[in-house]
Amino acid sequence: MTSLFSELKRRNVIRVGAAYLVATWVLLQIGDVLIAMLELPGWVGKLLVLLTVLGFPIALIFAWAFEITPEGLKVEADVDRSVSITSVTAKKLDMITIGLVIVALAVFTMDRFLDSGREQTSAAMETEVARPEQASVAVLPFANISQDAKNEPFTIGIHDDLLTQISKIGSIKTISRTSVSQYRETTKPFDQIASELGVATILEGGVQRAGDQVRINVQLVDAQTNEQLWAERYERRLTAANIFVIQSEIVKAIADALQTTLSADERNRIDSVPTENLEALEFYFAGHQRLALRNTEAFKEAIYYFEQAVALDPEFALAYVGLADSYQLQEDAGGLSRDEMFAKAGAALEKALMLDSSLGEAYNSMGGVEWTAGDWAGAEAMFKRSIELNPNYATTYLWYGTLLVEMGRVEEAVRYYGLGLERDPLSPVLNESLGTAMEFRGQYDEAVKQYRWAIHLNETFASSFLYLGNVNWAALGHIDQAIACHKKSIEYDPGARLPRLYRGLLYLDLGDVQKAEPWIGSSLRLAPLSLGPLAGMALLDWYRGKESEALRNAEKAQKIAPYYWDHRLFQSMALSLLRNFDLQQGNLDGARAWYEDAYPGLLDSDEPAINLQNYRAAIDLAYVLQQSGDFKRAETLLDRSLAFIEAGSTSRLGVGGYGIADVQIHALQGDGQRALAALRQAIDRGWRAFWWFYLKGNPNLHALHDDAEFQSMVQEVESSMLGQHEKPGGAETCSVL
Q1: Phi, psi angles (nearest 5°) of residue 41
Q2: What is the CB neighbour count within 10 angstroms for residue 464?
Q3: For position 699, which CATH number holds?
Q4: What is the pTM of this model?
Q5: Total number of domains in the chain
């Protein structure tokens, strides 16, 4: 036995076996990743395992029978032992085995990393995915069995509208369109899809349109057992009314199969016929499909389609809701003025609710209008009413969560984003919005994961590239990555104002006015009545010494009421420019008047409420009050602003962070040592965004301007930013791994 073992070692059979096993493990791990990525059938993996198992004894036999020599491969019995080089071959095999072990460790580590990435949504919410409820369903994209590509939009529309009808049943958890659309033409088994979406059942079907006839085949399947719970084929004359009748029958059959009782209100909503005009219905389908693309050009197209729908059927309530949503999204993207949006969206929603007061979608859209108008209480009531009427409408959880972030109720926002993700787990915009909440928590790495996950779900999702760029710039200090990500955002949505604006402001931080000018300028040309671009141009003009132009744009900006956190950042900067000019002129009343107009609550009450919306303005106003001799009110504003910051409602870094607001408070309160310590902490943590605006010529820090330590820190920040700008090369691509 000993001699056999020695011979096995001499012939390197044991080494070949060890190398083969390690190589096989690496191959199977890589194969597992590729099979999942390419959605290959399960038998491919089984075949790979079988081939590697069969290959093992062949490899051992080959190692026993043959030997590598300087002249090539020879049968072992023909090799003269005196010239054998098996010891040399052994060393080579050892090196190969060590290399394979290193590769195996790298694959193992990468696999753990990818697993962590796939689990990031649930980890970010700090919740665990519960077992799917029995009354839960994912409606997979329907197949277009007409074999005519022209019928594809109609098929998608039928699917989306049926999904909407099912979502009206509060007791059935229904996965939203964005998530199920990821499974178009998938080969994944039902149990895997159900596990990924957190449901118990799958509905699949197909639509065939031929002349004036339509056929819809559907089946409901238990995802774990593959048991068919219900199936039906509907063949009717193609009319809008018949389509809604078929949908109503399908929804009721699903409710019966899942043993769910429908309320009277739910039955009425399911039985309603939104329109009897088939052409209007198809325009409505097209409008919703454009809205799902979420870019400026698509919003314009959506408006056109919804306008056509209501022109054909003036009593089509849902089309008015789609129109209102489109107006709001277009205004947010900078393609519509605020006043025009209010007029058009308001009129559309008034008409929609007059036609059907039970539309949860309409109340959600009305909540958006109320929010933009500054009526948060009204907006919150509308969002809650929308959830009451349609608890599966993921968009409401998105919009309500975003309002809660704006209100400083970040933890509640995370909860509502989580509820939205239960219904639409693969939604890029919901995952992106959760990332924004992570930024406000100060969890910047988690925010990056969310933005990257959103891009993984939609590789051309422009807004996630923007937010990924901003967190790299303003929180992590990765300027080259920020520029690359902003570039991608502009590439995927060239009509959007914000990516251009932020890219220009980033270059301004780097001191590169020549590169800043075209980006800020193009942002303003795209949205000449938008707060951000106007404030951005004011900052650019102030930076390059064009004082009158800066004041003109700043005054235009402050007249536009902000309704989102970045709007308020820009408004506070515009107000600061106007304040600073008046202070230079000795016009204290004029400086105070800007704040009386924009934030009357800061002056009307002896106990002003300080929050995410007004704390920056409160600090700037405090300086004006000190110069006017109103030290008591100034101190109240400063104390309350500091308490707000220390309560943790927002974090220091990021575009929406408080930056060096605490430094300004301490300086205005005459505590230079605390101010310098806070500034040191901010710089060490990576604060840089808008550094020149806050550190150079800011009256709030006047008490520190002659301090040597302060001057040294200003020079440190300036040098670090110039160093970033002068660094050769830089990232050419935005990292989304």
Answers
A1: -65, 160
A2: 29
A3: 1.25.40
A4: 0.75
A5: 4
